[in-house]
Amino acid sequence: MSDLADLPELLPEPSDRPDAGLPRHDVADLALAAQGRSRIDWADRAMPVLRQIRERFAAERPFAGVRIAACMHVTTESANLMRALAAGGAQVTLCASNPLSTQDDTAAALVAEYGIATFARNGIDRDGYYAHIGAALDAAPHYVFDDGCDLVNILHTERTDVLAGVRAGCEETTTGVIRLRQMAAAGALRFPMVAVNDTDTKHMFDNRYGTGQSTLDAIFRATNTLLAGRTVVVAGYGYCGRGVASRAKGLGAAVIVTEIDPTKALDAAMDGFRVMPMGAAAPLGDVFITVTGNRDVVRREHFAVMRDGAILANSGHFDIEIDIVALAELAVEVPRRVRPSTDEYVLADGRRLLLLAEGRLVNLAAAEGHPAAVMDMSFADQALTAEWLHTAGRELTPGVYDVPTAIDKDVARMKIETMGIGIDTLTPAQVEYLSSWEHGS
């Protein structure tokens, strides 16, 4: 990993520098700040729940004196979460959780317009990526927000010097929760982490509606492909897979689902999808989308039987679901960039396989990620969970915890109110009935 001194913007700022007086940062171009602010404001219009929380935080200042380090996709939506935390008094430092998901204008605006320390550049190499995580941890955070568990992992392996000061944190994505549960089972996790990903207002909406729409949006932007009449293979039928499969079906595609879990496979079959192993689906598919959180889901033996022009896209957090090494070994030419975010691999028999976004998270690397209206709930969960950790959650022991149900319901209530939706309330007799075991038939 590179030394932070290799990144010039991380050096102390002399007074004659144009960015003197700004928080420490490493972003691509501060001149993009005005454009970034405009886009952040646009996202804010579709995030009324988080906006209400930000306004309350600004009045109550629940995070006064608190340092928060966040490793997240640097997008207009996450920028509004950072604004909410900062409005509550927190000293916030943000770094990117994926080298290709950073929106450079958003990163610039966070620094120049909102005064938030930000370390993120689109397309940064691996060393720079981890240097940015190190820069975020240099803030000696009390709380951490993670998306994929890289920041928490570095805390427990290479930056144990600041580990003792971390009180708790939140994890945003399925892959990160899987890693955290493994750490907890091994007795390695040193502080409490809340699985924000697993709350209903996150995984039922973000994963299903957000991933479903944004993944197909990315495929359209990268390839301009018509899905109607084509066969789409969706690997994994969790909430993300459900969203992708249902939206592909709605666009006229024939959808095949692959699974390792018999219950999820049964669920997919009952939803009307064909279910089969990837080995059987590989010769049939025109578009392959992985959303499993596991590695080598599409691999050498599958590439060997795919159709000419098959499209390979991954919407899992890490670039390991498609075996890119094996694909490169099978190719007889250096991959050619044929469209933005689309690389063509030519095999020995002349077949061409198209890999999108270098196998990384396609909806953020080739598009803009989830719509702001969806992230409104996910980031409202994050903000309120952080507040809860700083108050009622202070006595938690190391481990992985669920978001309190009251927070989940509060976010759902605020969301439906902003949508103009009304619901019933229980009558006193109904409350008494639900609270009693004495009523018979």
UniProtKB/TrEMBL annotation:
Catalysed reactions listed for this entry: S-adenosyl-L-homocysteine + H2O = L-homocysteine + adenosine
Composition-biased stretches (Low complexity): 1-13
Needed co-factor(s): NAD(+)
Gene Ontology CC, one term: cytosol
Subcellular location, record wording: Cytoplasm
Residues that coordinate or bind NAD(+): 173-175, 207, 236-243, 259, 294, 315-317, 363, 370
Pathway annotation: Amino-acid biosynthesis; L-homocysteine biosynthesis; L-homocysteine from S-adenosyl-L-homocysteine: step 1/1
Region (Disordered): 1-23
Biased composition (Basic and acidic residues): 14-23
Cofactor note: Binds 1 NAD(+) per subunit.
Family matches, as PANTHER family: ADENOSYLHOMOCYSTEINASE (PTHR23420:SF0)
Function: May play a key role in the regulation of the intracellular concentration of adenosylhomocysteine.
UniProt protein name: Adenosylhomocysteinase
Naturally occurring in which organism (per UniProt): Frankia alni (strain DSM 45986 / CECT 9034 / ACN14a)
